[in-house]
Amino acid sequence: MHAVTIAEGRLEWTEHPDPVPGSGEVLVRVRAAGLNGADGLQLRGLYPAPPGSPADIPGLELAGEVVELGGGVTRWSVGDRVMAVVGGGAQAELAVVQERHLLAVPDGLDWAEAGGFPEAFTTAHDALFTQCELTLGERVLVHGAAGGVGVAGVQLAAAAGCTVVATVRNPARRPDVEALAPGVTAVQPEGFEAHGSYDVILELVGAPNLPADVAALATGGRIAVIGVGAGARAEVPLLALMAARGRIHGSTLRARSLEDKAAAARAVERHVLPLLADGRVRVPLLDTFAMADASAAYERFAAGGKLGKIVLTTT
Ligand SMILES: NC(=O)c1ccc[n+]([C@@H]2O[C@H](COP(=O)([O-])OP(=O)(O)OC[C@H]3O[C@@H](n4cnc5c(N)ncnc54)[C@H](OP(=O)(O)O)[C@@H]3O)[C@@H](O)[C@H]2O)c1
After folding, report:
1. Residue of the CA atom closest to atom 10 of ligand 1
2. Which residues contact 136 (CB under 8 A, 6 or more apart)?
3. Is 163 in the pocket of ligand 1 (CB under 6 A)?
4. Spatial separation of the C-alpha atoms in residues 66 and 82, rounded to whole Å
């Protein structure tokens, strides 16, 4: 097979041996693989693949067809349309995936949309609903809302009947974010606390927001720290956190155990796939690139100012 390959800090399209599915694993012919911020970090040597994932083939999410079953696989058949979050190795013509990490691609969803779905929607669903126990009609703040995880979080919170305030630093993207769902207000990042208070805050930007996040918490409010691109060290007003009886959660998806990743996949299967299947949430696409042309896709991702996923596709 061919794969996007990290070689001395550059991306190449090179040949690798075909991967072989082991017990409980499935071989997927990859049709589409979404880009994520972690891919650029891995390229720069800042985010190595976890054990069990190829060290030199990036890619955290994929969609494609099942072409071979390893021993003991019961959930899938050859020919099934599937998608998944993986620890790495998605940006390749073939990938081995644990069967319990796979989700069925709903009828009507095209490959590029499916390839851009798993990472952002699993991250957003896990942070909002599993960690922060978001519930009907709460007031939600999403920082960095025009990005992949933000677009997913805004739609999922709105689908749960929540009022959503979304910070978006590029003014041109604010109407696009408001158009994602009814009840969404897009605001500039500066002064976001004036639109609160908030029951749940999805923090996708990082440390500089934390003091005002805590100060803007409603009683019983929860903060999920998911992205720290703007900084990872914050001074937190603990008295305000105590007064709100607030909680701050943090998590990463990639480093989780096989069991924990399977649990996150089952939660998405149960609660998000029905919304995706009937169009109540969608995967906006900014652009698609041939997988062999991954460098151009990475450059577009790094340029910022986007709304929607950038997805690599195979023929
Ligand atoms: N913990 C986990 O398991 C997990 C999983 C997935 C992602 N993440 C992390 O979560 C973050 C969001 O992921 P993503 O896929 O949504 O990334 P993305 O598509 O690159 O989106 C990031 C968004 O945040 C905005 N932003 C970045 N820096 C900002 C700043 N200093 N002030 C205001 N806005 C800023 C960007 O605006 P511009 O377009 O204007 O730059 C963009 O809209 C990333 O840091 C990513 O690494 C973590």
Report:
1. 227
2. 160, 161, 162
3. no
4. 7
* pLDDT exceeds 90 at position 302: yes
With the most atoms of ligand 1 within 8 angstroms of its CB, the residue from 169, 192, 249 to mutate is 169
> Dihedral through CA 217, CA 183, CA 272, CA 290, nearest 10?
-100
Tokens of 307: 């709304």
Q: What's the pTM value of the predicted model, to 2 decimals?
A: 0.97
Distance 36 CA to ligand 1 centre (A): 9
Whole-number Å distance between alpha carbons of 69 and 96: 10
Detail the DSSP E strand segments found in 144-193.
Answer: 163-167, 184-187
How is 69-92 classified by DSSP, letter by letter?
E-TT--S--TT-EEEEE-SS--SB
196 has which bridge partners? Answer: none
Q: Is the dihedral of CA 295, 37, 50, 25 positive or negative?
A: negative
pLDDT of 92 > 90? The answer is yes
Is residue 315 over pLDDT 90? Answer: no
Radius of gyration of the chain (CA): 19
8 A C-beta contact, residue 186 and residue 164: no
Ligand 1 centroid to Cα of residue 237, in Å, is 24
CA-proximal residue: ligand 1, atom 8 (nearest): 227
**Residue nearest atom 45 of ligand 1, based on CA coordinates:** 227
Pocket flag, ligand 1, residue 230 (CB < 6 Å): yes
Report whether pLDDT(255) > 90.
Answer: no
Position in ligand 1 atom list of the atom nearest CA 304: 39
Asked if residue 174 has its Cβ within 6 Å of ligand 1, the reply is no
What the block records as the tokens of 44 is 């720069």
pLDDT digits (tens, 9 = 90+) for 128-174: 999 999 999 999 999 999 999 999 999 999 999 999 999 999 999 99
pLDDT of 243: 98
Rounded distance from Cα 148 to ligand 1 centre (Å): 7
